[in-house]
Amino acid sequence: MNESIVRDVVKNKSNIIYSIDQELSIAEAIEKMVENEIGALIVTREGMPVGVLTERDVIKCWVSVGYGCISEKGKRLFKDIKAHEMMTTNLIVVEPSDDINYVINIMVKNRIRHVPVVENKKMIGVLSMRDLAKSCMTSLQSENHYLREYITDKYPG
Known about the structure:
Distance between the termini: 19 Å
Number of strands: 5
Shape: elongated
Number of helices: 6
Structural class: alpha+beta
């Protein structure tokens, strides 16, 4: 497979970064995920990524405090729980120059499906495992096409 870097994948995606400020509620996060048909939001503080809030985090929240568990503060509703309370905090970020295979290995090893892309201390995108799979498939299809042309003597080189 051709060497590909994060920058190549980011430039072929929408430049929309779905994020939520850490002080907003889980209810607001759920609404944003549903509205945009996405499974994760980057949680930010002053515009910088500090965590990720995923569908899995919301389910954990539901089980731990959402559907009837009583905490010392009493029953808490999603509208009363801040994103930073339930987000995954061990955030792994990647850089535009990182190799795609390296990023895939990091994501698989750490069992994560989304990584922010940061350049010069600024978040420039978010990659999902789906984005990386699509990139790899496109690359493999191109390579397959050129190999077929080469084998059948249609290759211009």
